[in-house]
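Per your request, structure below.
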């Protein structure tokens, strides 16, 4: 998805571009958005029991952090402002009158949780020596 390590500012910028900066209320952008991302990083640290440096986020953590942050941001926008008139996330576009913002946010959150489960999967090999 990305190349190299990112920081919370890089994640915030990526999330802002995906949602559209004009769709993010000024009261949520900036410090509030960075704090939201830090909360999601803490969530992932608790889940994986690994430490994530917020100034150097490894590529393997970027997709779930982006999805969780994007999900939380959409929930916050939907709750505080009544939603977004038009939103486009990649190929998916939702226009005014649709109440699917929370559905998208839920789907993003579910995808992020699946990504986290993949991060936790450890492969173990066992050698068994048997005799007759």
């Amino acid at each position: 998805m990305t190349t190299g390590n990112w920081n919370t500012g890089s994640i915030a910028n990526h999330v802002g571009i995906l949602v559209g900066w004009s769709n993010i209320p000024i009261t949520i952008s900036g410090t509030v958005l960075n704090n939201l991302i830090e909360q999601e990083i803490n969530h992932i640290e608790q889940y994986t029991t690994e430490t994530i440096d917020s100034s150097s986020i490894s590529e393997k953590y970027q997709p779930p952090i982006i999805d969780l942050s994007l999900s939380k941001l959409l929930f916050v926008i939907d709750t505080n402002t009544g939603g977004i008139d038009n939103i486009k996330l990649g190929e998916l576009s939702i226009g005014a009158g649709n109440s699917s913002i929370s559905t998208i946010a839920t789907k993003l959150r579910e995808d992020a949780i699946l990504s986290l489960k993949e991060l936790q999967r450890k492969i173990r090999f066992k050698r068994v020596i048997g005799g007759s």
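DSSP finds four helices and two strands in the chain.

Regards,
D.
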